[in-house]
Write a structure and sequence with these properties.
Largest sheet: 8 strands, mixed
CATH architecture: Roll
Distance between the termini: 15 Å
Strand order of the largest sheet: 2-3-4-1-5-8-7-6
Radius of gyration: 14 Å
Shape: globular
Low-confidence stretches: none
CATH superfamily: 2,3-Dihydroxybiphenyl 1,2-Dioxygenase, domain 1
Mean pLDDT: 94
Helix content: 10-25%
CATH class: Alpha Beta
Strand content: 35-45%
């Protein structure tokens, strides 16, 4: 499968205020509502709010590309000159994420869904 852009994560400082804003914007309630992450699904997109994002180097919204083999894709991005800011980690249930910074300072996220 080619990479597909289906997720964007916003680093937020005030999770409750951000949750209210995105609930109003997307006109849906969150499917995940935890102290460490709030997630919405709207029009086939996953929109997440991460209260720890700034501490992990997120300077703004990060698009997450869904891939089949996150480790291989991360290695390819690093070989192409990207700087790994977050190595592959399991965020629960086998869902893997990582993100890099490109030569222009843009953040690019990768995610791999759990094996079926």
């Amino acid at each position: 499968m080619a990479a597909a852009l289906k997720t964007i994560i916003y680093p937020v400082k005030d999770l409750e205020r951000a949750k209210a804003l995105f609930s109003a914007l997307l006109e849906v309630e969150p499917y995940a509502d935890e102290s460490y992450y709030v997630g919405f699904k709207s029009a086939g997109q996953d929109v997440g709010l991460d209260p720890n994002g700034h501490a992990r180097g997120m300077t703004g919204p990060v698009p997450y590309w869904h891939v089949d083999d996150i480790r291989a894709r991360l290695a390819a991005l690093e070989a192409a000159g990207a700087e790994v800011l977050q190595d592959v980690q399991d965020v629960g249930g086998g869902k893997l994420i990582a993100f890099v910074k490109d030569a222009d300072g843009n953040l690019v996220g990768l995610t791999q869904d759990p094996a079926a």
